[in-house]
Amino acid sequence: NNNNNDDDDAKKEISTEKDDYQNALVTVQIIPILLQGFLNQTTTSSGSGGGGGKRGKAAAAAAETTISAHVKFCFWCIMIQPLVLRLKKSSTTQHDDDDHQDEEEEELKLSILQSIHASLQLLLQHDIYSPSSAAVKVDVDEQDEDFKFLSWIMECMLHYMTTLCNTTKKEKKKSGGEEEEAEILGIFQTLLQLNHHLIHCHLSSLLLFANYCLTSTTSSKDTTTTAAASSFLSSIIDTYHKLRQFGHLLTFILDILPSSPYKEEEKMMTKKKEDGIIMMKLRHQLLQQEGKNASLAHILSRMLQNQNTIRTLSSSIRNCPSGQTTSLWNIYNDWIQSRVGTSSLQEEEEEETTQSCFLKDEEQNVEFMIDFFILYLRSIRVDRYSAHEIMSLCDVTMKSSVNCLMRVGKKKNTSSSSCLSTNFIKHGLYLCSWLVDLHTRCCFWLNRTTHAEASKSFLLGKGGGGGGEGGDDGSKEDDVLSFLINVAKSVSRIDHGMSSSSQEKQEERNTTASTTAAAATTKNVLMYNDMNLFHAVGALQHLA
């Protein structure tokens, strides 16, 4: 009898737990419905006015709208607060190993995220909170309290985001973590639409997380997460473009890339304390999730492979005010020049094993930045008013960043750094080819297409010593075309029977592959210039 009583008690306890779970799930799901009904009803009530003339109706409607907006927001806060607190509690509580309970908990957390997202969309749809409505409110402190509450929601979502990044991809597929990623990205996007100041201080962390969620797989869940991440990134880019703060957005992106090891801790200390801690956690977690050979630059590069974000970036760059051209250009150029120079110094000072790891990460950072710079070069708007300024900037970059990449690439050729040196040369040639293309567009607008010396001197780097800096022996650096021809000659010698190891052959093939791309682009300039140079590049492409 005692055993039967124990079994009955256990069954009752299980049924009670199921009832509690079902009640919690229903309560969570019904909150957005209650909010929508309340907001629709109050909107209808405020819109229906009585008599008393047009002016009386307008005054009464304005007063009633002002009061109802504050009441609506207070009601919204009361309804949404328990959801956020429950989600915050679940992210800090350790659960048992019971798989059934874990599934129920994950389902409940997903429902909470969906309800928070739907409630925030109602807040945006009914215009209950808007920074532009501050002048309508009687008390300015009301808006401050509203902003503080939304900031609290933002901080809770950031904390849950770092918790979500701790789970592996296999665990996410089992527990529905990918759907949670899509929902939390939607929450961040809605908060951005409500007030961009809510995410401004945490923009670097959010950009990194959104890029991490961008994937190239084709499964339905991955597609949902990728679409949410792409939409969020596009909203960020479009918002900062409209604010004419694209330079700030670019700075936040660069803050994600790690500096040299001895500067990284100092860099984090200069940031806001909370954001610095979140960023350090996020970096560590995402690099663990991505695997052994992962890098932050590799995660960020997904932004430049997604068609939606590429279109938004290109449109924002093309429509940037002309007065921002030089400042944005200098951000790219100065970063590349300084980081490549740092890599060169690190190569000389560090031991070979240490420098190999550092240079590998740094080369990936430089590769991402050059790809980003080339997107800027391809998207920038050139007309007769801006052509002269852009042409001057092309000259500066040829003498600084391109020259620095070529010089570092040719500086050292040890067994551990030869592949990295080849990559630096490849990046220099790739950047050079698009600078030639942009320089040609500028020549067209300045009616210099018939002058042979215009683009030929640019390609040959006349006077391009990097601000007076020469080679190790004080002589001028070789121009790009001479370097291409020397590469072609070396390939020709290998093809005629020179013995070399498989690694050396692979490095030569890597160099000539990048040379082909540069040669194909430079043909456009040389076609209407010196025919001898044109045939030289044609022969180079044939040899490659």
From TrEMBL:
InterPro entries: Ribosome_Biogenesis_Reg
Transmembrane segments annotated in the record for this chain: none
Any Gene Ontology CC annotation: nucleolus
Region (Disordered): 495-516
Highest taxon, organism lineage: Eukaryota
Biological process according to GO: ribosome biogenesis
Record protein name field: Uncharacterized protein
Protein species of origin: Ditylum brightwellii
Taxonomic lineage from the root: Eukaryota, Sar, Stramenopiles, Ochrophyta, Bacillariophyta
